[in-house]
């Protein structure tokens, strides 16, 4: 059976690399950071358990560290000279254009996290004050409605990243010297892994399974992310959804055995996860801004 374009893209996306060490003293660090991120992203695809918020946070922080290494490379005089001289800086302009898309994705991600954090805090407040009282069913419904909007916006962000992935990757590496060809290769690999890390962030928010199916790569919406030994397994968001569904059913059926504490614990875990993701996003966003400023300074020289 022929390989689908999306399958080929993801296979390339998670390919391990080994860049030549002649590039720059910091090249070894770039190589190591890239391969760590690619290995992590590949494990998310093949994993049989749902992806946790902590795993996503680790990817965001690792990506920020990678951009820090790239910034040191970009500050190298030989790199700056090569970037400016090649086609009057077209490579820098292309990298700047890509950075706008990544900053937009980070801003969208932060907005969605703020919405989710507020949703969690509102429900926590209601459960503390009213427990399992029947009057909270409206609050549960409001939470579900807001979460649907988060998933819808996450899907839009995933499509935007997919569009970036399909766009031509930087300029050709033909007819350039060794150093510049390696710089282009680094920027290309960084772009690919950035799209991957951000995509998994939005997949986490929307509870979408990104694992391969026999027919190729697809995004399958599901609440139960996987089935282990007959038990449904959830990420933090799905865990709260399941608890709220159970609590809502108990309230509607006037069941006195509803366990509000389970819901409160899961909301607490989700709140902690959101805090971690926010920290990781802030770390990445700051580094993306620094990287963009460095590129702008090159053009200004």
From TrEMBL:
Write out the GO biological process terms: root development; shoot system development
| Pfam families, per database record | BPS1
Instruction: Check the record and name the InterPro entries matching this protein.
Output: BPS1_pln
Name the chain's protein.
Uncharacterized protein
Organism annotation: Rhododendron griersonianum
């Amino acid at each position: 059976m022929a390989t689908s374009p999306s399958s080929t893209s993801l296979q390339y996306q998670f390919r391990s690399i080994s860049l030549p060490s002649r590039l720059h003293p910091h090249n070894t660090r770039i190589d190591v950071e890239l391969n760590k991120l690619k290995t992590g992203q590949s494990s998310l695809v093949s994993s049989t358990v749902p992806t946790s918020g902590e795993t996503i946070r680790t990817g965001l922080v690792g990506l920020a560290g990678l951009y820090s290494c790239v910034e040191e490379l970009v500050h190298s005089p030989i790199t700056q000279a090569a970037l400016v001289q090649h086609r009057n800086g077209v490579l820098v302009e292309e990298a700047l254009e890509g950075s706008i898309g990544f900053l937009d994705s980070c801003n969208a991600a932060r907005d969605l996290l703020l919405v989710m954090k507020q949703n969690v805090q509102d429900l926590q407040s209601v459960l503390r004050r009213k427990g399992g009282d029947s009057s909270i069913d409206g609050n549960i419904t409001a939470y579900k409605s807001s979460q649907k909007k988060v998933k819808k916006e996450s899907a839009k962000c995933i499509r935007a990243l997919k569009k970036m992935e399909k766009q031509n990757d930087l300029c050709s590496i033909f007819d350039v010297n060794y150093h510049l060809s390696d710089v282009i290769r680094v920027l290309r690999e960084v772009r690919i892994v950035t799209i991957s890390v951000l995509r998994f962030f939005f997949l986490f928010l929307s509870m979408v399974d990104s694992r391969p199916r026999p027919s190729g790569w697809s995004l399958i919406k599901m609440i139960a992310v996987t089935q282990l030994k007959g038990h449904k397994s959830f990420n933090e968001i799905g865990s709260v959804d399941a608890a709220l569904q159970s609590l809502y059913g108990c309230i509607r059926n006037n069941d006195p055995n509803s366990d509000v504490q389970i819901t409160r614990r899961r909301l607490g875990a989700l709140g902690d996860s959101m805090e971690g993701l926010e920290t990781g996003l802030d770390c990445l966003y700051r580094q993306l801004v620094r990287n963009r400023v460095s590129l702008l300074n090159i053009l200004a020289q």
